[in-house]
Amino acid sequence: MKRILIAVVLSLSVFKASADEGMWLPMLLGQQVYNDMVKRGLKLTKEQLYSINKSSLKDAIIIFGGGCTGEIVSSQGLIFTNHHCGYSAISGASTVEHNYLRDGFYAFNKDQEIQSQLTVQFLDRIVDVTREVEEGVKGLAWADRVKKLPDVFKAITDKVADKENGLAGRIYNMFKSNQYIMYVYKTYRDIRLVGAPPESVGKFGGDTDNWEWPRHTGDFSVFRVYATKDGKPADYNKDNVPLKPKHFLPVSIKGFKDGDYAMIYGYPGSTNRYETSYGIKLKNEIENPSLVNLRDMRLKYMYAEMIKDPAVKLKLADNYAGVANYWKFFDGETKQLIKFHTYEQKQDYENKFTAWAKGKPEYETLMAEYAQNYANWTPYSKQRQYINEGVVGSPLAAAAAGLISLEGLLLKNNTSAADLKKATEAATANRKAFLEHEDLPSDEKILAAVCMMFYNDVDKSQHPIGFYEGLKASYGDLKDEATYKKWAHDVFTKTMLIDDAKWNAFVAQPDGAVLQADPAFAFASAFIKNYNGKYAPLYTQFVNRNNELGRSYMKGIMEMNPAAVNKMYPDANFSMRVSYGNVKSYRPRDAVFYDYVCTAKGILEKYVPGDYEFDLPSKQVELLKKRDFGQYIDKAKNDLVVTFITTNDITGGNSGSPVIDANGNLLGLAFDGNYEALSHKIAFDKDLNRTICVDVRYVLWCIDKLGGAKNIIDELKLVR
Predict the structure, then answer these.
(1) Long-range contacts of range 425-429, CB-CB < 8 Å, 24 or more positions apart?
(2) Which of 20, 59, 190, 219 is catalytic?
(3) DSSP H helical segments within 73-227, as ranges?
(4) Contact predicate 538/380, CB 8 Å
């Protein structure tokens, strides 16, 4: 009875932000939300949070790379972000002889800073373009609307584009396409690596501690943005100078206590807080379990090779980290969604919505239409996961799949010599990139396992026609693991993607029949073409219909509960948002209490010499044992605070986001969420949700005491 009552109460407020929930657009902070921020402790004005005409906090926040957040922390364009956000740049700069990933790196002057391929984007302004967008698609059916929208968006963004100054617009749909907001960004292309701790610091705890609290990970890296002498974006050039930003964040080493105000600015990637029960059922029963199983297999085989050889570890590091991060997330997400009865809560709300919708033609059949749409797609959803996470989860198969477009040119009668030359040159470049990161032993095992898992787990009627029949005829029983191992060994032995002589001969005389006969291409193309030809259109149809229904559902929710609209926020979509809350301890379960900080004491307690995840640099062990904390010591704890937790609402994309105090000073960097609340993409838990952050004092200690880069410290504006 008690659980049912709770579910009903939640259903009444399931789409209304409460407590610390909410990822708010800084331009559109309602007075009610801003007043709540002030009530919680904020000392800044609205204009200090976001302004077009004056410098404000938004001017210090950047899109870092393609999927993270960073912040400017000095008048010379210095950037702080997470270690895992800078990971590819750090590993890319590393060699076996100069392994910055393993040993760490700090530039002691600007001449030592290392060029990267990264870009950063500053938000110039935000414009509501809903009226213009709706005018452009007025009167169109949904399918035609979807086709027309890119042209409408382009017409609007073309008006603000300024290539010389790096300006470009990007339009985001908010509230399930009920509102359209244009963000105008300025992109800088000369970004240099300034510093990073050793991987044993930046990834301390590895996969074991990922998504967990307590945590002792020094997840940070340091970069710098460069521009021309007149401040314009430019490609890398030795004559470029550090950017003078509109605003940078002072860095606080004052410390904080449990309950203090905390605000996070950044670019949360995606949430689906308005998801239906049908979507949750599909996720819990098919999508997430399939993804977890496939990633688990890939990680197992990569890890087995990485622990054998430092060179292999370096080669696979970036790929492994990417696969591992969300393997654990999706496993935890499913468990939490089930634990908190999210499916049942959504059903309760949908029943309430349906009752309200009676007699309203626009809404009364919505839930039945949702049910039908999911029923149409669900039988094929597992195959999609097995293609994306399985077939192209093998680097060799992914590389082979990239040759399908070349096959198309080779089979055309009128392909020009120039087009063919261009295509083969691109294929050769892609092959080179593939081989640079390819580990043959692990990939061969992955390929064999993927092929067998697809056979066993995906409905036989959805298999590519003739593939498994041919496999059985040549290699044996399809229920026997040895069959797939023999086949995979042959693929790796015979494919031209690995054999230079065969590849060069093919490029010299490109031939469609030769490409089709290649065993790696034969495998990849069979599965990709089967999916693209028969099932991808069904998925597109499913998504488009879901989006159409979602727009109506969102509109209906707002009409049903107009009083709550001012406390509703759009789903995350990698547009700038601000969240607010407090530094706060919590009780995850009976008789367990988690403090709001972790300290250096805990690092030494976890330290295991030579361990893959819990080793430490000898210098760090020495410094910590001596308690050489300098000005970075927390006086209340009488220790060096390493990490802390807040109640802020964040998600992927917020990695590297600044945690800011009530006065606009930097307290730390957000880098993770806690396992107990991994349902957060769909359902925010006001009691258990915590954001895990690296304390900026630990960042500075690592730079100064461990790395000896006092030049970086001297560049910052410290608040004591």
Answers:
(1) 427/402, 427/403, 427/507, 428/503, 428/507
(2) 219
(3) 87-93, 100-103, 130-136, 142-158, 199-202, 206-209
(4) yes
DSSP 269-327: ----TT--HHHHHHIIIIIHHHHHHHHHHHHHHHHHHHTT-HHHHHHHHHHHHHHHHHH
Burial label for 292, CB within 10 Å (0-12, 13-18, 19+), is: buried
Compute the distance between CA of residue 298 and CA of residue 293 in angstroms, rounded to an integer: 9
In degrees rounded to 5, what are phi and psi of residue 614? -125, 25
User: Which among 83, 84, 216, 247 is annotated as catalytic?
Assistant: 84
Q: Does residue 7 have a pLDDT over 60?
A: no
Burial code (b: 16+ CB inside 10 Å, e: under 16) for 589-600 equals eeeeebebbbbb
CA dihedral 538, 540, 543, 547 (to 10 degrees): -130
Q: Are strands 691-695 and 120-128 parallel, antiparallel or unpaired?
A: unpaired
CA distance 571 to 719: 35
Tracing tokens 């495998």 back to the chain, one arrives at 523
pLDDT tens column, 356-388: 999 999 999 999 999 999 999 999 999 999 999
The strand pair at 179-188 and 221-227 is best described as unpaired
- Phi first, then psi, for residue 117 (nearest 5°) are -100, 10
Residue 655 annotated as catalytic: yes
Contact 194, 173 (CB under 8 A): no
**How sure is the predictor about 317, in pLDDT bands with cuts at 50, 70 and 90?**
confident
CATH code 1.10.1140 for 575-719 = no
Q: Which entry of 655, 661, 680, 704 is annotated as an active-site residue?
A: 655
Whether 84 is catalytic is: yes
Report domain extents, the chain. Answer: 120-188, 277-536, 575-719
Cβ contacts of residue 590 below 8 Å, gap of 6+? none
Rounded Cα–Cα distance for residues 162 and 186 (Å): 9
Name the pLDDT band for 564 (thresholds 50, 70, 90).
confident
